[in-house]
Amino acid sequence: MDTTAYIFDLLKIILPALIVAGSIFYLIQQYLEKEQQRRLIELRLQSSKETLPLRLQAYERVTLLLERITPNNLLVRLNSSGQTAPEFHRLLISEIRAEYEHNLSQQLYMSAETWAQVKQAKESVLTMINKAYHALPTPQHARGTELAKRVLETIIADEVDPTEQALNSVKREASSLF
Question: Which keywords fit this entry according to its UniProt record (predicted)?
Fold first, then answer.
C-alpha cells in the first residue's frame, strides 16, 4: 500500500501542477496571438497613413486627366484657329495620348474597374474625334475650326460626355477612402 499512497500523493502534486502549467501555457499563447494581431493592425494603420495621401493624389491626377481630355475642355484649351483639320486632329490625338501616358502610373492606386473606365473614356474621346474628323466632307482641306465644330455637334447630338462615367467612378472610389 505504500506504493499506492506514494503514487496517489505524487498525483496530488503533479496533477495540479499540470493544470496550472496548461493554464499558463494557454494564457501565454492567447497573449502572444493578441499581441501579433495588435502589431498587424498597427502595421496596417501605419501603411494606410503613408499610402492614403498617395492614393488621394492619384485620384486628383486622374480627375485632372479626365477633365483635360473632356472634348469641351480640350477644344477650348487647344486653339484650332489657323490650323488645318489634319493638323488639329493630330494635335488633339497627341494631346490626349500624352495626358494619358503621363498618368499611367496612377493605376497602381485605384481598382482595376475604375482604371478600365478611365481607359475606356480615353478611347471614347479618341473615337469621337476620329469619327468627327472622318465625317468632314474633305478632311484634308478643312479648317481646324470645322473639326472642333463637328466634335461639339457630336457631343450635343449624343448628349453624352465620354468622360463622365469614369469621372463619377473615380469620385466614388476616392470618397470610399473616408
Answer: Membrane, Transmembrane, Transmembrane helix
Q: What residue ranges of the chain have pLDDT lower than 70?
A: 1
Q: For residue 122, give the amino acid letter.
A: K
Say how far apart CA 161 and CA 156 lie, in whole Å: 9
Report which of 79, 85, 66, 58 is spatially closest to residue 177, judged by C-alpha positions: 58
Q: What DSSP character marks residue 59?
A: H
Give buried/exposed letters for 59-91 (b at 16+ CB in 10 A, else e): bebbbebbebbbbeebbeeeebeebbbbebbeb
Q: Looking at residue 37, what is its pLDDT? A: 95
Cα dihedral 50, 54, 59, 64, rounded to 10, equals 150
pTM: 0.74
**Using one digit for the tens of pLDDT, what is the confidence trace for 51-103?**
888 899 999 999 999 999 999 999 999 887 789 999 999 999 999 999 999 99
Measured in residues, the chain has a length of 178
Matching residue, cell 473639326: 147
What are residue 143's DSSP bridge partners?
Answer: 84
Q: Where are the beta strands (DSSP E) in 14-136?
A: none
> Which amino acid, one-letter code, is at 54?
L
